[in-house]
Specification:
Pfam families: Amidohydro_2. The protein is of the alpha/beta class and 335 residues long. The protein contains 15 helices and eleven strands. β2, α6 and β3 (116-118) form a beta-alpha-beta unit. α1 packs antiparallel against α6.
């Protein structure tokens, strides 16, 4: 057997041209104000220098590749920084954003096509254009798109997204579920709770909407990759199973126990705890967990393979998570 490449499915690219595009447009100021309220002043103060020192790795393919070499990562699946979602934008602006994001991400990855694969964006706030945005991403040679956990006024269970799920299933496109912003708002505006509590909460809520609404029943072939190990849901799925069994309202929308759907999803390994990672592998299956680092942000890991090794998985499971699963998902070939 050949050894699979080491594949990191959670890595970001910063696209300054998108921020130039939306600068000064109506709606941006309100979106920034909401982000500021949700994160709080201390987090915003820390974010500036943190991002500033990472600009080369976020924008320069050569700096990215050097960092990958240092980490022992062969391939990255690169997605735009979630700060580029701009779900406040009107339909005309949203189309410009997704086109620019898709084309710029593809251009970044084209610098090393054997080592960089990319994801684009779709405007979830305009479901009627989401299929067109997905197809545009695929036309650029990208592997799929990145989506957030919700958009203002709509959850991922909204029937308006059925055409997107249908087309993603038909094309085999990857949908990378990565939250940006938590609707708990100012309750999390200290101590970076907006991220440490907010992100895993949003993951759990979004996945629960997809499961309990029957989206995964109607679209069993969807390739959804949940960032941050799926948040709180995989380690607390027993409560969902109990509700589905005990209550008619909880069990009305999906055909099977909620825990069974974890084996239809993919999860990155970024949980920051080897015991939690072992539990994620247990409940989802070793074939459903993929290496993830959140490159190059401070809430990620600079040693994703080391973090995986700390979970002390059986060798076959270790190599599947390290790269075998992602290589199959991305249809990579190692010569």
């Amino acid at each position: 057997m050949t050894t699979p490449p080491t594949v990191d499915v959670h890595a970001h690219v910063l696209l300054p041209e998108i921020e130039t595009l939306v600068d000064g447009l109506p709606g941006l100021a309100d979106a920034k104000a909401l982000d500021a309220r949700r994160n709080g002043p201390a987090a915003l103060k820390a974010n500036g220098p943190m991002i500033g020192e990472r600009i080369p790795r976020l924008t320069d393919p050569s700096a990215r590749l050097a960092a990958m070499d240092a980490q022992g990562v062969d391939v990255q699946l690169v997605s735009p920084s979630p700060s580029h979602y701009h779900y406040w934008a009107d339909e005309e602006t949203a189309e410009k954003v997704y086109r620019l994001a898709n084309e710029a991400t593809a251009a970044h990855c084209a610098a090393a096509p054997d080592r960089l694969r990319g994801l684009g964006l779709v405007p979830l706030q305009h479901p009627e254009t989401a299929v067109r945005a997905l197809e545009h991403a695929l036309e650029q040679g990208l592997s799929g798109v990145e989506i957030s956990s919700h958009t203002p006024g709509r959850e991922l269970s909204d029937p308006a997204y059925e055409p997107l799920w249908t087309r993603a299933e038909e094309t085999g496109a990857i949908l990378f579920l990565h939250p940006f912003g938590c609707t708990l708002d100012e309750r999390l505006d200290q101590w970076y709770l907006s991220n440490t509590v907010g992100q895993p909460t949003e993951n759990a809520v979004a996945l629960s909407h997809l499961i309990f609404s029957g989206v995964l029943d109607r679209h069993p072939g969807l390739k959804i990759v949940a960032a941050h190990g799926g948040g709180y849901l995989p380690t607390h799925i027993g409560r969902s199973d109990h509700a589905w069994t005990a209550r008619s309202d909880a069990g009305a929308g999906c055909a099977h126990l909620p825990s069974s759907y974890l084996k239809r999803l993919y999860f990155d390994s970024l949980v920051h705890d080897p015991y939690v990672l072992r539990e994620l592998v247990r409940v989802a299956g070793a074939d459903r967990v993929l290496l993830g680092s959140d490159f190059p942000f401070d809430m990620g890991t600079d040693d994703p393979v080391g973090a995986l090794r700390a979970a002390r998985l059986p060798d076959a499971d270790f190599h599947a998570v390290r790269g075998g699963n992602a290589a199959a998902l991305l249809r990579l070939r190692k010569d």
